[in-house]
Amino acid sequence: MFLAWREIRQNKLRFALVTAVLLLVSYLVFFLSGLASGLAGLNREAVDKWQADGIYLTAESDKSLNQSMMESDLVDEIEADETAVLTQTNLIADNGDVKSGVALFGIRPDEFIMPEPTEGEEFSEEFEVIASDSLKEEGFSVGDELELSGSDETLTIMGFTDEARFNAAPVLYMDLEDFEKVRPGASAMSTQETPGQPAEGGQGPAEEVEQPDMINAIVVKGGQPNDVPDDLEYIESEIFIENLPGYTEQNLTLTFMIYFLFAISAAVVAIFLYVLTVQKISMFGVMKAQGISSGYLSRSVIAQTFILAVIGVLIGFGATVLTGQFLPAAVPVSFDYGMMAVYGAVLIAVAVLGALVSVWTIVKIDPLEAISG
Amino acid sequence: MTEHVLQLEEVTKTFGSGRTEVRALKETSLEVKRGEVIAIIGPSGSGKSTLLTIAGGLQGPTEGEVRIAGERITELAEKDRSKVRLEHVGFILQSSNLVPFLTVSDQLKLLDKVKKGNMSKEERDGLLEELGITKLTKKYPNDLSGGERQRVAIAKALYSNPSLLLADEPTASLDSDRAFEVMKLLKSAAVKKNAATIVVTHDTRLTDYVDKVYKMVDGVLHLESEDGGAKPLEEGRTDFLEKGGNEDGI
C-alpha cells in the first residue's frame, strides 16, 4: 500500500484516467442494470404483487395468457390454498384528454389478487375500476370516465394502486362479472385477440349470462399442483413471467451487455496497467536488484488497481443514483441496490484480474537487465 | 566463522556457446573482508560489471562458487538470492536507482517496509547530514541534480546496513571534491559497520581511499596494489554511525 498510494498521489493524471475509465464503465453497468430491472418491473410488477406461486393456463396456450381460454368453474377442480380467476385483454383507454394502452384485468373482488387502492377506493358498482398509479403521471385521475377501444361502455376510475403494470401496460382491475361486456369482440371467443373490433349489437352479453364466465387463467397460492385438470397446465410464476412476450429477450440482451462490459473493463484495465508497468520495468528491475521481492511489487500493483477500482465504482454508483433522480418518469429505471452491489464487486474483481497481466510482467523482469541497461 | 563477507572461488562466466562463445570472466577468485574497501578498475567491456553482478548475486557464474555472508548463493533460486540481496547487499548503481515517485525520506522508508535492521533515526540523520542532503528529504528525484541523486542513492544503499556494498561508478556524476568526500564516507562507513565494499570505477584518483586495487583486463583480475595509497581516516567522520557488530551472525 505504501508504494501504491504514493505512486497514485505523485501521478494523479494517469491514475485519474484509469479511474475515469472504470467510472464510466461502472456507470454504464449500473445504469443498464437499473434499466434491466426497470424494464423487467414494467413487465412483471403486477404479477409480483400477487405473490402467487403459480398460474394455470390451458395446455394448448403454450404459456401465453391471451391464448388460454377456459371456463371459470374449472377453479373448483384446482387444489391450492388460494385461487383467483383472471381474465385479461389489452385495449386503449381514453379519458377525453389522454389515451393510453392498458391491460384490463377482470378479477373477483373477494380473491387474493384484488389490489388495495393506494388512493381512492375499491370498485363496487358496474364498470368501476382500480387503475395503476402509473396512469396518474399520464394525466388520469380518480373519477375519470374512460372510453374504451372496441367497446361502447365506459369505465370509471375509482382508485389507484401501486405496482400494477403488466407487460409494459398499466393495469385496470375490474370485476369479472362486467368484464365480458367490455371485452372487445366479446361475442366471439376466437376474435378476442383483435382489439379494435367492436362488439356486435350487444346481444353477446345477454346470452352469456347463463353460462360460466370465460377466463384466461387461474392464479394460485399455496398447495401443491399435484392433480392438474386435463387440458390445463401449471406454470410457476417465474416461468410465466419469463414467457411474457419479449421479456426474456429483453432481459438477455441487457444482461449480455452487462457481462460484455465486465470483459471490456478487465481488458481496458489490463492494457492500461500493462502500459504503466512496462514504463516502470527498469525501476522495478532496480528494486528487484535491491532485493525487494516480486511479491511485494505485485501486491503494490494489485493494491493500486483495487484502490482505483473502488474509487471508480463508488463514483460511478453515485453518478448513477444522482442521474436517476433527474430522469423523467418515462424512463423505466429502477435501481436494485443489491444487484448493483454485486455488479460493483464483480467490476472490482475483474479490474484486479486485469492487473494480473502486470503481475506476470513484474515477475518476469530480470533485475540484471535493469542494472546493466 | 569467517572474516570474509564475499568469497568468489574460481568463478567463470561464459556467454553464448560454440562460435559465439564469449568468456566474460576467466577463472577469478576474490575475497573481501569486513571493513575492507577494494576498487576494481579497468576498461569498459573488461568484465568488471559482470564480476560485480555475480558478486551481488544478480546472476550466477558459469562455474565456481560464490558466497555472500557465508551463504552459497550459487545454489539458490532467484527468490532466495533476492532475499540475500535484501539482507546483505547494498547497490550503488551508475544510473540512478531511485524510485521516481518517492521523496528522499520515503526512499528510505520503503526499505523499512521490506526489511528490518536498518539504521536508527539518529544514524539516518547523521548519514544524510554527512552526505549533505538533509534539506532534500521532502524532494522527489526529479527535483534533484545528478550529484544530489547519486548522494541519495548512496544514502539508500548504506541505510540498510549491508554487509556487502557494491558500487558501480558511484562518483560518476559528482565533482572531484564531492567524489573524494563520498569515497571517504564509503570507507569510514565500511570500517565502522564492518561491511565489505567493492567500487568499480574509471576514476584512478579514487584509489587513494581504498585498501586494495584490482585491475580487470579481458576477464582476468589482477591485484594491482595493496594498501597502496589508503589514506588514514580523518577522526570523527562517521561518529553518527553506531558500531556494527557481527549482526549477520557470520
UniProtKB/TrEMBL annotation, chain A:
Q: Where are the residues of the annotated region Disordered? A: 185-207
Q: Which Pfam families match?
A: FtsX
Q: Name one GO cellular component term.
A: plasma membrane
Please provide the record's keywords in A-Z order. Answer: Cell membrane, Membrane, Transmembrane, Transmembrane helix, Transport
Its record classes its membrane topology as: Multi-pass membrane protein
Q: What is its main location?
A: membrane
Question: Where is the protein localized?
Answer: Cell membrane
Q: Which domain of life is it from?
A: Bacteria
InterPro entries noted in UniProt: ABC-4/HrtB_transporter, ABC3_permease_C
The record's comment on protein family reads: Belongs to the ABC-4 integral membrane protein family. HrtB subfamily.
Instruction: Give the protein's function.
Output: Part of the ABC transporter complex hrt involved in hemin import. Responsible for the translocation of the substrate across the membrane.
Q: Which PANTHER family match?
A: ABC TRANSPORTER, MEMBRANE PROTEIN, HEMIN TRANSPORT SYSTEM PERMEASE PROTEIN HRTB-RELATED
Q: Under which name does UniProt file this protein? A: Putative hemin transport system permease protein HrtB
- The species is Bhargavaea ginsengi
TrEMBL record, chain B:
Annotated membrane topology is: Peripheral membrane protein
Q: Where is this region: Disordered?
A: 226-250
What's a Pfam family in this record?
ABC_tran
Matching entries from InterPro entries are given as:
AAA+_ATPase, ABC_transporter-like_ATP-bd, ABC_transporter-like_CS, ABC_transpr_LolD-like, MacB-like_ATP-bd, P-loop_NTPase
Keyword hit for Glycoprotein: no
Gene3D superfamilies, alphabetized = P-loop containing nucleotide triphosphate hydrolases (3.40.50.300)
Q: Which UniProt keywords apply?
A: ATP-binding, Cell membrane, Membrane, Nucleotide-binding, Transport
* Similarity remark: Belongs to the ABC transporter superfamily. HrtA family.
Q: What does this protein do?
A: Part of the ABC transporter complex hrt involved in hemin import. Responsible for energy coupling to the transport system.
Description of how the protein assembles with itself and partners: The complex is composed of two ATP-binding proteins (HrtA), two transmembrane proteins (HrtB) and a solute-binding protein.
Q: What is this protein called?
A: Putative hemin import ATP-binding protein HrtA
